[in-house]
Amino acid sequence: MKTSINYRFIVPLMVSVLFLSTSIQNIYAQDTKKNTVRLKADYIKTMNKEAAFNLRATSRVDGSNVDVSDIELTVFNEYNDEEVKLGSAITDGNGKCTFVVNDFNLIKPDSTGLYNISVSFKGNDFYKRASKSLSYKDATIEAKIITIDSINYITATLKDTATDSVLPDQYLNVNVQRLFKSLRIGEEFNSTDENGTIIVPIEEGIPGVNGILTFEVVLKDSDDYGTVKALVNAPLGVPVVDESTYDQRTMWSPKNKTPLFLLIFPNLLILGIWGIIVYLIINLFKISKSKI
Fold it and tell me: What Å distances lie between residue 230 and 44, 56, 116, 234, 255, CA to CA?
């Protein structure tokens, strides 16, 4: 009786263990078939405007690096042992997306003044879940236009926000915005002095709409502060003369601005050709009637 009781419990136990191990192997096999996603995150701050995180997702599939499109990336702010969701964005066809934070106060630093951000992807049928952490300090750029001996300069001071201290020996780029790509002015590398300041002369003769130029002072891809940008508008450019013929009747204008001769002359030709055709048809009809 004792032996039979043991078998009654042992056999179902062995079947359960076998079933459980098979299920675990199937789950593991399905998970190993999924591809690993690599995430990249860059922080960009535009003074008095917004903060943004440029995100990118890639994966190595069949030996080739591919962009992972149409996946949702969620951005979290980690502070005081808490994780606060800021929002999410969907990657485009190039595996890229931008998450914009319009209010700087939404992101909180830890006790050391360090901002900790995490980006996560929860995974799907084709890719494993992934995450990326990003930490940075907050910096500010104060930029303005000054004039010395009739020469215009742009000056900027870089500071650490948490300590309110200037940042020397940092490289700032100075550009003027153009239609397709910003134009660099001054030296290729402008290093801040002991006061965290640079001063760059502004070239004359730069064209601008209504004479207005938009200057950019950029701390680019800093390991500690990310990318920080300050914009300054100033009426220092040469006014651009609007030579657009958009509202005139030209060959390259919209269809509602087609030149009149292109409307009248072709229509006269069409009417003349159809008139000749109608005339010939009438004469043929007369000839056929006269033979009868």
Answer: 11, 24, 23, 13, 42
C-alpha 221, offset from chain centre: 16
What pLDDT digit, counting tens, does each position of 85-113 carry? 999 999 999 999 999 998 888 899 988 88
Asked if the structure places residue 112 within a domain, the reply is yes
pLDDT surpassing 70 at residue 74: yes
72 beta partners: 90
Q: Which domain holds residue 201?
A: 139-239
Q: Pick the residue with more confidence: 255 or 168? A: 168
Residue 188 belongs to a domain: yes
Q: What is the mean pLDDT of residues 186-201?
A: 91
- Which residue, 239, 260, 281, sits at the end of a domain? 239
Tokens of 190: 């402008």
Phi, psi (degrees; rounded to nearest 5) at 206 = -80, 120
- Asked if residue 127 and residue 80 are part of one domain, the reply reads yes
Contact 95, 69 (CB under 8 A): yes
Let me know whether 41 and 132 are in one domain. Answer: yes
